[in-house]
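Hi C.,

You asked whether I'd gotten around to modeling the 232-residue construct. I have! Everything is below, sequence then structure, no commentary in between.
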Amino acid sequence: MAALIELYYWPTPNGWKISIMLEELGVPYEFKYINIGKGEQFAPDFLKIAPNNRMPAIIDPDGPGGAPISVFESGAILQYLGRKYSKFYPTAERSRVEVEEWLFWQVGGLGPMAGQANHFRHYAPEKIEYGITRYTDEVNRLYGVMNKRLADRDFLAGDYSIADMASLGWIVSYERQGQDLAEFPNLKRWFDTLMARPAVKKGMAVGREEREKSNLATDKEAQKILFGQRAR
């Protein structure tokens, strides 16, 4: 029996990208929790495969040439798995470029901006109206970009792809980001379609019970770990 892909994971929008992809691929894998509220992302063994002390990361024991490989950064992991299994990441150059455009749009825009909106709206110790308005409005703009993109297509880059998987988790918490999906009917249709996929449901269920054991909104020590880091 082939060795399983190891997924180093916590149930967050970035973690969901990879659990969803693995479920969509139907690839056997095992997950190893990295509890980011307890600082497990700073453990020396984890830093060997994820030097940015962020999950997710994977170890594929059957990497290129049959040798193990570790991959960190969610976008890079999606690309690696898409290439390896030739699914959800097209080989035709024009189609691949289209997927990559929307993948990096998420990695560089939607994710960071939604994260900042959530932070300033819910976790900042002081309610800074400029920060709340700045990031809430930017997320609204990005939702609008998605809504226009999806006006004449089912998915972001043609067929269902890693670009859709990457973006989905950052829409799940739309209310916490100060958004109303009713304002974006094309985006809402896309969101409802993806959330109904069996593999998406399975991928997002991974670690749900573990996450529910903690409450970041009230756990000041976890907030200190997540929000108070400097160079080590």
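If it helps when you're writing up: The two ends are 40 Å apart (CA to CA).

Thanks,
B.
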